[in-house]
Amino acid sequence: MSIYATLWRLKFPRYGNDHTGCEWVEVLAQGVPAHVGTPTPGFGYEAGDPYAAFLPPPVEVDAEDDGRALRAVVIVTEGTPKGTHRSGQEYIDPLLVLSGDEYGAISFSATSCEGTGRIASLSSGRTTGVPDYCSRTAPRRTVGRVSLRTLAFRGGGDGPLRPPGGNL
Fold this sequence. Notes:
The protein is of the alpha+beta class.
């Protein structure tokens, strides 16, 4: 059984330019519910969090939780393999890993313009700046300690994007 639930799917031109007959790459946001690995008693993780090596820290789950809270959101391209020596649930080389709180704090404008532009840049392998449809003078948006304007420059297949010195 997977610990992930697909939140959304977007398609981007594989090589950055939309034209007739271009290749597309599908990018998915995979949500990890807050109860996965939680230290809250009664959820089956009293012996420890088996996902701590590759997910943001677990969160306490309130008794009134409606199941919509997220521990993490992992952004991957379609077909990204899952399963490492640490865990069968770990994605190999995800584009981005965010805590649930960090994902929830991204505004729609950041997600729809700069955020998707960064994801498009990462998924196509480009390291260019903000896409043409975004204002180059738009204010910087911060996800945790990572500026969305810097995400494209920190990718390149080196594993999850993480700020200097640690996890998101």
